[in-house]
Amino acid sequence: MQKEIAFKTTIGLEVHVELKTKTKMFCACKNDTDEKRPNINICPVCMGHPGTLPVINKEAIKHVLKVGLSVGGKLADFSEFDRKNYFYPDIPKGYQISQYKYPLVSGGKLLGVDITRIHLEEDTARSSHDTDNHSLVDFNRAGVPLMELVTEPVMHSSAEVVKFGEELRLLLRYLGVSEVNMEKGEMRLEANISIQRSDLNSQGLPLGIKVEVKNLNSFRAAERAIEYEIKRQAEILEEGEKVIQETRGWDEKNQVTFSQRSKEDSHDYRYFPDPDLPKLKLSEIEDFKEETLRNEIKETPKDKRARMKKDYDIKESDINFYISNVELGDLFEEAASNLDKKDFQLLSNYVVSDIASLATDASKIKGEQIAEVIKMIVSGDLSSRGAKDTIQVLVKEGGDPREIAKKAGFIQQNNKEELMLVVQNIITQNSEIVEAYKGGKLSAIQFLVGQGMKATKGSANPETLKELILKAI
């Protein structure tokens, strides 16, 4: 029987992110991803007309440097822009202004993934094909500031790629450098995938042949494209054939990758410094100094995780929920400031479940209001059911939580003298159940408590009822 061949997968990423700036990278045209009309936000500069001169967008450089600081990268002291030469309809100038030898950021790490470099370039136009047998080009996107982050080939599964991508998207949103809406193409992944027989990999031989899969516009697409490519390459190697180094696209409809072109090397692009743009000595520019940048960075997802664990000591899953859902995280922290530490997890349980389920209206509730609900639960004034009902009314109508609970009859009865009258009636009417409990059927007590809750229309505190019933028996 032939032994099944095991393979080791190696993946590196190139992540392209459209930055949030008012204007494009090298001209004054509006940077607007919501513009639906084609070829509105264009000018002679971003269209590459002869005689025009580009001007560097200062804010875009600051954005990239902030990202570099946040991942522990080394900020360049000297940097410059280069011309990346290739001909395609979405490149109006016949070259793309990018960075080659001197990127803005070198090194860094995010979620244990080593980062090679982070540099800045201009985005290409948007092409649409097969439109009445024509290809159309919309240049609104041409020239938009585009950050490219390149990782080392240190990931080994699609799950690692997705986890890294999600963390990077969170970081970029926290820094305010991009909206990172993948459905708008504001974040695109390109995965470089190679596989090698595990027995050969253990011998320290070079990695397998690299195949690049371009323009993955969702984490779902990235996951499926990588899984498909791993399987495709494995089948080729199992047949004794060689994997071809190439660039492939992802066919979302058929869930397959397809060949686009042979993979280019850097010399194919004939990089050279752009003669129309000045060299950058970053340390001489106040806004680009590390201290200035750090003062503008409020809190990263990593920082927030550590702080919330230290300050609140709630479940890790809840903390991650608040990292991704900033408004609900702020609500939790506002409410927690009105409570004792021992009640933080109880508070979080209601925010993550009940309030989150009312997401469209959750912004109406205030931290002090949800804190008051938690206080009523802790004091025994509200049952879990009563708390849920109070929160629903509170979110929809607003008001004072205690008044809402009183008016709706959610407040639990704790007056033992009044409840004892209820208990005596229950015992009298359910003598057989009482005898069954005395005979050793301990579960019978729950039936008696249930009868008490029914008699009080759910307003009695079940623990107080149980205590009184046991005392009376």
Structural account:
This protein has 3 domains: about 5-295, no CATH class; about 300-410, no CATH class; about 415-470, Arc Repressor Mutant, subunit A. Helix content is about 40%, strand content about 20%. It contains 16 helices and 17 strands. The protein has helices at about 60-70, 160-175, 200, 220-240, 290-295, 300-310, 315-325, 325-335, 345-355, 365-380, 385-395, 400-410, 415-430, 430-440, 445-455, 460-470; strands at about 5-20, 75, 80, 80-85, 95-100, 105, 110, 115-120, 125-130, 135-140, 145-150, 185-195, 210-215, 245-250, 255-260, 270-275, 280. The strands form 4 sheets. Strands 1, 2, 6, 7, 8, 11, 12, 13, 14 and 15 form a 10-stranded mixed sheet that branches. A 3-stranded antiparallel sheet has the order 5-4-16, with no helix packed on it. Helix 1 crosses helix 5. The chain is elongated and about 95 Å long. The protein starts with 6 loop residues before the first strand and ends with a helix. The model has no long low-confidence stretch (mean pLDDT about 90).
